């Protein structure tokens, strides 16, 4: 029994001491709080209207997202225009002014070699045509607001411009080196059509023969597999069609 009483007194003492420590901490916090007079809020601060952050978000559709091909949101806040003719011309001119820079970057092959000037010219022309056909917005609103964001009405315009840049990037990756070599070697089918035909693998027999003999390394990405083994020349699309027929019959 004395043992039990000693334990009770021991616990009681520690609980009392703990209560004193907690009280001391609370008093210290209260004493260290800032002076209410010096830190008082200005009159009406709690009832002030909220302030919106109108700066572009990371998801806004801008020239940068157009260049990078990223998903975005059309969040621009634009007002209606009164001079629709001038506004439509201004919208097209705004996009044409940035077309060269965007096309120059899209036309650079990923290998780090210099930009393909022929591909830049092709891209600029298609970019300009897309701007004229889809980006005037009938002069109702500006195409880009003061913060650099595309207007919500510019969805179709943005999509067309993005498609031009994506196609150019693909041709720079797949066809640029091959078509430049084909032009130097005087192969048939050179020029602007070469980029599209090589990218889509729609090359005729004579073109394939020249590319295989004169530009095998530069055109290795687009040459048919049988070309390197058997030397047989035939259009790539015909090969793909025959391969699908064979696979379907198995």
From TrEMBL:
Q: Where is the composition biased (Polar residues)?
A: 241-250
The transmembrane segments are 7-30
Would the keyword Transmembrane helix be found if you checked this record's keyword annotation? yes
Domain of life of the organism encoding this protein: Bacteria
Q: Where in this protein does the record put region Disordered?
A: 230-250
Q: Which UniProt keywords apply?
A: Membrane, Transmembrane, Transmembrane helix
Q: What is this protein called?
A: Uncharacterized protein
Give the species. Archangium violaceum Cb vi76
User: Lineage, please?
Assistant: Bacteria, Pseudomonadati, Myxococcota, Myxococcia, Myxococcales
